[in-house]
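F.,

This is the one I mentioned.
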């Protein structure tokens, strides 16, 4: 996935901005208070949190968490089988360093066509779930999406507001047949 995903901003059911996080944040600041705003990360389709505080107010620093926050390190739990832990303990640099190397190697490898298609369908799913879950056509659209049925997905999007349908289709395109 892209390390710098694009973002899309919706004002109600209308697409109002698309671009970098900074561009979408600026648009959201301008529109804040007019109607419900939802920003989405284009690579995942998930709702994105934007800092809408005015530029002139720096705000309080974020709370300090565990780990090494200046480096972006976050402590989380990993569950492995005993054989996996044994193998990791014999690797140079220990378990954490080995896991980071494995993750970096996997991230630098190009994703398979199946992985790209799955990620596209999941992004469209997350987007539709957040913005269209109670709209007509939603459930049929999801059924077609996960069948990878491009024609069925397009047909099921027809009752949805045009901007929502167009963005869902844009997100899902790589995961659909025909």
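My design for it:
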């Amino acid at each position: 996935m892209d390390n710098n995903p694009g973002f899309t901003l919706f004002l109600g059911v209308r697409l109002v901005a698309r671009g970098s996080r900074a561009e979408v944040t600026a648009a959201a600041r301008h529109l804040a208070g007019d109607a419900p705003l939802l920003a989405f990360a284009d690579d995942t389709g998930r709702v994105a949190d934007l800092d809408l505080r005015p530029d002139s107010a720096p705000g309080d620093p974020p709370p300090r968490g565990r780990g090494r926050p200046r480096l972006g390190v976050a402590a989380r739990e990993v569950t492995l089988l005993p054989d996996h832990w044994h193998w990791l303990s014999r690797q140079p640099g220990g378990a954490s360093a080995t896991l980071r190397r494995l993750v970096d190697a996997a991230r630098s490898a190009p994703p398979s066509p199946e992985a790209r298609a799955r990620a596209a369908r999941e992004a469209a799913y997350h987007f539709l779930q957040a913005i269209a879950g109670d709209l007509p056509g939603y459930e049929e659209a999801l059924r077609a999406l996960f069948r990878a049925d491009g024609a069925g997905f397009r047909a099921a999007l027809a009752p949805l507001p045009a901007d929502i349908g167009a963005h869902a289709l844009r997100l899902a395109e790589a995961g659909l047949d025909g």
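The two ends are 23 Å apart (CA to CA).

Talk soon.
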